């Protein structure tokens, strides 16, 4: 990170006045009272610019480059690793007014959007066409398509549809040079030289600002059935999920697993009925779709009955109404419940190859226990793609030594097993140590070279991913 | 492209002797009589090195870098754009001995392979586990996984599974620096900084040599039904395909369309029965899977009957045996039949957004006609993803002016419509003009910068993609 000459938020606000007709400038006054999103420091820059066109973004970036002013891109500010935190002297570049759904192509199942459209707004725009996004996540109301591209977001459907990178057919961005990079293909098959839009996906705003995207979408499969099952372990849970994935008349829509402490404490807090659950087992939430809701329910019940003995299921319950299905989902999606008891609980988001999950969770339990003080974790996540969310049952921030020990316990063995220390949240400010420790040094060096080439003055989201 | 000091094939053969125990060196003598693959010039270098380990690749690359000798990577040499052509003074780096399937994880539906494994060998290794690759293409017997990564191959299943880029979870490569880039994640969800393995996918060996990959695979769906339909146009064909994609108990496995001249000439040559086809209509080949072959056939017939009027189908026939299904497929997969009548017929491989296909094909017909001499094209391809293969019914190579006019006719409007001048074959030697004309100049400049950064001496596959 190089240092930049610092202009005050008020200086910046006046300097930008009149730069481009499609730029709205919000100074310190205008930002008062605005919700900062997931991180209280997101608005610390005190200046936010909201462009309404790609050309306006390019004008702003060129100005920032000429004046060596750093840019912090912001979408829905729902990120959990500090990737949108800003400081005085920087400019927040917000996608809030780049919020148009530009074209829906129902026959092709594609859509073209500006980067600031929220996932929920896009789903609402698609719904009349019988379509929906191929990616879904809990923060759908605030997360933007551009922010999801910048962090290569994953969510609930990744096991079947892949992650954001797999949804993106075309992309336009403004590079740190101020040039507009335009690769708005609307087709899945392209082999026409290096696919450099991939650099803009998952690089957390460090290589450019995404302005426009073309995405694959998919038909809504509205006829659903939802079940909660007690499973002895992830391995047996995966076996149930694999069976449903191979079913000719059912589609698996979600396989979300919650380990016992998460289940117990959440149920106690929210009075979820667990009378059906045996032996304090982990709980697997399954959702399937079929030709009708009744068919889905009947077939799901039949499949579960057939695999019951083999998978050693520890009780189960199939939702008999959409209300009940919603309550099952609350148990999984309202996952922040533990922050009430443990404010700022250290939280992690890792991927492990699914067949390694049981060993990983057992090892994690032992490693946390070895740290002392009866340290435990809430563990839950997307079992079919191996993405675990982990929150330590302790108020944060932890003292430095404890923090380091906990991180070592969480990340132990992940790289050698083929997993990732960050599955869908990114690196941001929070995961620097993990990035420096667990990413292949050759890959780190290459990332630094590309950063230096694209953004020699380190003006794009400085200090986030450690280049 | 910089120039390199030229060593003769024999000099190179002796110089490499003993460099690393895992390197097999084949000199000019050893290459005599070897089939060059799709391009007669593939073996012109006269020296082929076959490493059996990543370390041996790294040793070779370091030696080449020190001695400024260029490297031409080769997999199955089934490419159609000259991407593997070599010259005296260069070394062919073959993946032939990197041919191990390293690990199959049936519960996770992932596999780890060396780059030289052929698609067919991988399919055979997966079959006992009830699994197969999520990508399939006609040249499966020779195409290697590494070559398919380097060209971001597509094939028959891209409309549902995406292309090679979407199958790859992890990748190891040797960079032009001689360093080993290792990102062998085995998970779909990774948001841990820029995903630089994407640079190695689809860059045709210009940025490094892929040695090892982790891929997603998927369950075999063995119970199939196949039909041939007459359709008035692509739009109606897409409607039929879309209906089948939304069917709860059927999965669409292929939707391949052949336009009339292709159908007519191929049927005349191979005596395909077209008595069921009305009005010289384009033909759509559909394949679906279901719970049993009988169920798939019955449901497919019922769906076609229901949409018959609306889609204005022009006759149709559902295969009553696997033999008959195979004959239907021969009509599509044995597509090189026209080379007998038109040797070296100029051929193209474009993507268009599926809803723009009819306008494109009509425009193409007019534009070719305007060139004169009754110029016509064979058109066929993967309708659901918009990938058309086009061969001009004229012997090649064409005189320069005619070639330029034909290329302009084929590529007209593709970029502005959101398509691609190369869908799955790459750029290689054959598509330089198209690359320079139809790729965003900002993207071209960025590709040049990255090439210069990674391979400052232009040693990796020089002269292919024009950097």
UniProtKB/TrEMBL annotation, chains A, B:
Keywords: FAD, Flavoprotein, Oxidoreductase. It comes from the Bacteria. GO terms for molecular function: FAD binding; oxidoreductase activity. InterPro entries: FAD-bd_oxidored_4_C, FAD-bd_PCMH, FAD-bd_PCMH-like_sf, FAD-bd_PCMH_sub2, FAD-linked_Oxase-like_C, FAD-oxidored/transferase_4, Oxid_FAD_bind_N, Vanillyl_alc_oxidase_C-sub2. Residues 41-220 form the FAD-binding PCMH-type domain. Its cofactor is FAD. GO terms for biological process: respiratory electron transport chain. Pfam families: FAD-oxidase_C (PF02913), FAD_binding_4 (PF01565). Belongs to the FAD-binding oxidoreductase/transferase type 4 family. This is FAD linked oxidase.
């Amino acid at each position: 990170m190089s240092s930049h000459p610092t202009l005050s938020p008020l200086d910046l606000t006046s300097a930008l006045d009149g730069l481009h007709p499609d730029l709205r400038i919000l100074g310190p006054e205008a930002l008062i009272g605005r919700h900062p999103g997931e991180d209280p420091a997101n608005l610390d820059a005190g200046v936010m610019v909201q462009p309404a066109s790609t050309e306006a973004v390019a004008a702003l970036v060129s100005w920032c480059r000429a004046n060596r002013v750093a840019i912090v891109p912001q979408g829905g500010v729902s990120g959990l690793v500090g990737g949108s935190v800003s400081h005085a002297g920087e400019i927040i570049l917000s996608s809030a007014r780049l919020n148009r759904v530009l074209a829906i192509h129902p026959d092709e199942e594609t859509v073209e959007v500006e980067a600031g459209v929220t996932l929920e707004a896009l789903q609402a725009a698609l719904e009349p066409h019988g379509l929906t996004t191929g990616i879904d996540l809990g923060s759908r109301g605030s997360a933007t398509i551009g922010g999801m591209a910048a962090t290569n977001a994953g969510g609930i459907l990744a096991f079947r549809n892949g992650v954001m990178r797999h949804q993106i057919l075309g992309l336009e961005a403004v590079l740190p040079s101020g040039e507009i990079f335009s690769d708005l293909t609307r087709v899945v098959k392209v082999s026409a030289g290096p696919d450099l839009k991939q650099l803009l996906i998952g690089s957390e705003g460090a290589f450019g600002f995404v302005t426009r995207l073309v995405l694959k979408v998919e038909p809504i499969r509205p006829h659903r059935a939802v079940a909660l099952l007690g499973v002895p372990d992830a391995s047996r849970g995966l076996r149930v999920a694999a069976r449903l994935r191979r079913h000719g008349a059912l589609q698996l829509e979600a396989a979300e697993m919650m380990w016992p402490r998460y289940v117990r404490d959440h149920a106690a807090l929210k009075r979820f009925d667990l009378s059906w659950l045996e032996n304090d087992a982990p709980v697997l939430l399954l959702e399937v779709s079929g030709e009708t809701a009744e068919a889905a329910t009947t077939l799901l019940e039949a499949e579960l009955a057939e695999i019951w003995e083999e998978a050693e299921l520890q009780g189960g319950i199939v939702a008999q109404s959409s209300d009940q299905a919603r309550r099952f989902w609350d148990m999984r999606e309202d996952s922040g419940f533990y922050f009430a008891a443990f404010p700022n609980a250290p939280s992690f988001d890792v991927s492990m190859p699914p067949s390694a999950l049981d060993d990983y969770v057992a090892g994690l339990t032992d490693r946390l226990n070895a740290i002392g003080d009866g340290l435990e974790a809430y563990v839950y996540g997307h079992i079919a793609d191996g993405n675990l969310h982990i929150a330590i049952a302790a108020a944060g921030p932890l003292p430095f030594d404890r923090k380091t020990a906990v991180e070592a316990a969480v990340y132990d063995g992940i790289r050698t097993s083929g997993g990732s220390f960050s599955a869908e949240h990114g690196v941001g400010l929070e995961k620097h140590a993990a990035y420096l420790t667990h990413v292949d040094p050759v890959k780190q060096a290459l990332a630094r070279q590309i950063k230096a080439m694209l953004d020699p003055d380190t003006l794009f989201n400085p200090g986030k991913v450690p280049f």
